[in-house]
Amino acid sequence: MKNSIGTFVEVLILALMLSDIVLLTSLLFVNVNPQMYTIIVYFDLIVCLILMAEFVYRLRKAEDKKQFIKSNWSDILGMIPEIIVGPVSTIFRYFRLIRIIKILSLFKKEIRHLLNLLHKTRIDYGFFIVLSILLISATILYFIEYSVNPNINSFDDAFWYLLVTITTVGYGDIYPKTEMGRVIGTIIMFTGIGFMSFLTATLTSAILKNRENNNDELHDKLDKLHSEIEELKEIIKNKK
Questions:
Q1: Which domain holds residue 98?
Q2: Which of 28, 32, 47, 204 could form a disulfide with 20 if both were Cys (CB 3.0 to 4.6 A apart)?
Q3: What's the pLDDT score for residue 35?
């Protein structure tokens, strides 16, 4: 049971980290509107608080705390929230490197173990497919709606609309006015629903599989113990 919960927590933290990385990376290449930037900042703050709690938990469990800090010092950079990095990087352009270092620090965190977990559960393919659909759809939507929709004046406007649509938030501040734009919005809706179903099914399957493996290990140990008891009985019987 503990291993199942541990696996679920690892996958959840990994999903949050990857989402945070994607959003922070987008800030390096896209000038997002103030609303979207605010959402990214608060989302990043929540992820950082979770990472801080997880870091403290691992630190308390570590036998050699000094060695743990030396081995994981870069994780601390990954816990610096965008709400602090953002204003600094705005004032000093070269301090944008802090944001890049933070992204690398987040990605470095138990990279081999987490990537293996992603690959085993196929969640990495899911994220890649959804991100690709979002970027391609946003590009198409921008070119379709740009000349006829006063609410879509840039790529990030199109991306913002698709992002709030796929997350089922639906602010209603931006909406398509062409038939093709509505078709794209519908595709994104079904993509979001499909991805959440895939994510739920994958996590459930991983937890059940992990529980089955633990049960198999327990049965093997019980069989081994039974065999040893039988051997011990034979030894005692022979001595008599």
A1: 1-110
A2: 47
A3: 85
